[in-house]
Amino acid sequence: MSSNRLVWTRTSIWLGFLALLALGLGLLPAYGFSLAFWFYLLLWITLASGLNIMAGFTGYLPFGYVAFYGIGAYAAAVTVKMHGLPIWAGFIAAALAGVVLSLLFARTMVLRGIYFSIVSLALAVICRLLIAAMPEDVAGGSYGIALGFSNPDGAYYAMLALMLATLLTVTWLAQSRLGMALRAIRDDPDTAETVGINIGRVRLKAWVLSAVIASMTGAIEAWYTSIVDTETAFNLLVSTKAVIFAVAGGLGTVIGPVVGTVVMLIVDDLIWQHFPVLNVFLLGLVIVLLMMFLPSGIVGSLIRAKPFLRRILF
Amino acid sequence: MLEVNALRKVFGGLVAVDTISFTVPENSILGLIGVNGSGKTTIMNCINGIYDATEGAINFRGTNLVGKKPYEIARLGIGRTFQVPRLFRRLTLTENLMVPVLEDSRSNAELTEKANALLAEVDLYRIRDNHAEELSGGQQKLVELLRVMMLNPDLILLDEPFAGVHPNLCKVFLDQILKLKDAGKSFILVSHDLTSVYSLSEHLLVLNQGKKIAEGNAADIQHNPDVIEAFLGR
Description:
A: mainly alpha, globular, B: 234 residues, alpha/beta, 10 strands, transport (chain B)
């Protein structure tokens, strides 16, 4: 089978799977399922996939990814609560906030490797402190903002839509020229520039895209919980979990972050059920073992072990 | 085609390239030779924008390259290979060849076809879907040259193309260079393999400790006492 036909076939199968998934997940509220687990499953898949655009496709690991999530949550909350606008206006504000913050932080991408990761982490902490220091009538101060209303079903559908949009975007990216340029930058930015890629412009596109996904996720979570505060919205565990889930599945693959999130959340749930006291210890152990024996993640390691799978998994 | 005037590159207190001038005419091969640390690769890096020249001018068909970014220089029509091959290791061979032409207006199918045709010429088509990191060093050098060919530059900088390459693969490499030369391309060739440099280059530049110590054709260079001293010692 030719390469083009293979790509077409595997993409069609994947899109078919996504359509079925959307249908199944869309029916959950109608059948009275508890939405909490499913909402957060969708949220983590979205965040891990959004982070994958930067870390997996472009090679920049933003430990401060939570900054975009937090700013999105606050932008939506301020728009809705302080200015009395509807939630869709809050989503637009969140997306704009993500774009603006990513452009402000874009200069950090001249740094590479661990230096970039550390600076992005520091910027996330600075964002949290700045928002906490703002007057209460501007951003709720250190107490945060209570939206005063919630719509879990609406938030669930919004998260489902964002997750699907994110996965479709990543699927397109994996097969697009932009995606190929990003992967070339990931492998060797200097050489990519030497062969004619404007690496500054290309990685900025990925950075903004990745940031908007996180800021929209933060906004939807704010709607779901109806409360936003700096400790939760800028909690570094958000970045950490997104990184762990994406790495567990396989950075740089489309389905890796999905598989990683599902597996890790199920393992976490099982450990909670059977070993509540040892939960954190056992979860840590699982992560250590995973990284030791599957350093490229579940999907990434499968592809490395069996190169022919490259034609099927992506 | 290319004019380098009084090029100087200083790293801290080290003068890596000391006021070097030379020209590369259209459809020619210039050989750059010298012992390790003589400044050959630094000159290449200044030409394609990896390093900013400390002083001097580099003009390519009337455009001053100093201060331009590597991607701008690549788009002007200058391609290069590296001493240690630098492929995109987790991209397939076909993808590696497509990277320089991602902004091309041709369709993906056309670009893939072109890339695969080049791979077929050097018998690498059968492993076109392999990742570049799975190739041998010699094969990587060959794919790097093919990647340059995809860009279709007018001037190609080759840094040690024959180092560590099996003689059979060297032959394939030489054939490709000659084919490109016949197609009107120009080259700057850096190599320790003097036999190849002498046979390929119309003009040679000999460097020692960042300075030009000789210039001329192969016959002149081989009998130049300064060159003999620099390579063999007194």
